[in-house]
Amino acid sequence: MIEDITFRDRKPCFIIAEAGVNHNGDINIAKKLVDAAVEAGVDAVKFQTFKVENLVTKKAPKADYQKETTGTGNQYEMLKKLELSYEDHIILKKYCEEKGILFISTPFDFESVDLLEKLNIPLYKISSGDLTNIPLLKYIAKLNKPMIVSTGMANLGEVEVAIEAINETGNNKISLLHCTSNYPTNYKDVNLNAMNTLKNAFKLPVGYSDHTVGIEVPIAAVTMGACIVEKHFTLDKSMEGPDHKASLNPEELRKMLLGIRNIEEAFGDGIKKCNSNEESSKKVARKSIVARVNIEKGQTISYENITFKRPANGISPIFIDDLIGKKAICDIYMEDPITFNNIK
């Protein structure tokens, strides 16, 4: 059950496809996003739940990236077009269940938390913007479900305050996501090492929420120990809306998923040994001690009359000290392997 997952050292990595508001307020587009997430093979598809009246003032300005992608106006006007109704949520959750993918959503206000609780979602994702919204954090924490908390724009002190607020409710099911809240994020601003700073500072499961334009950084995050990866995706980057341009298209999402799973498989067990699939290579790639020239019976083996060549069908060069000074007990022809049966 997902309720029991703490995400600590989770393998394989839990991958969230962030649909966010890329449905543009259209339930049919939202369903297509679910289909794309299922096809990619991710663990969960995540939306955003909010009542615009509870989220922003009517004069709240847009972020710079939102101005670039949606033009003039304010946040209220922009977000009002991207709101999903309670009925939409019911449809989406049921659709996800039919498709066999986990439905989750980020609530941005108290009313939205209540809506999601009616749907009995198994965990809560907290946006970076609400890291300092202590009343909302406590309201969600009291539900005693796992909380994945994004930490964009935050310093360690602010993260610590958020964790303490959640813990005060008795909820310790916390995971942290490092992220940079810029859309898109330049590679030089990613600061991926901060993910492990969070892990070392708070001894909690950590992951990464990515806003770069590519797939390299999420894959790199997994190699650094991320147990959760979240990535925005869209059906078409050219669609109207604030987040499409900084999102992956379905094919890119599939490639990211494949890259992460390939890397995870490549981790192995850490034991340094000859892999069973290397045995045939070892026989042809390693060398044996062979006769450099014809060696007559009774002749002493020396560096002058031997050399080292493939394949490994004779004595390994690792035993050279045991060989030098021995005598041939029979004629050994040039390029024949030296064996312990033809020397003494």
TrEMBL record:
The keyword Ribosomal protein does not apply. Its EC number is 2.5.1.56. Residues 288-344 form the AFP-like domain. The keyword Transferase applies. It comes from the Bacteria. GO terms for molecular function: N-acetylneuraminate synthase activity. Keywords: Transferase. PANTHER family: N-ACETYLNEURAMINATE SYNTHASE, SIALIC ACID SYNTHASE. This is N-acetylneuraminate synthase.
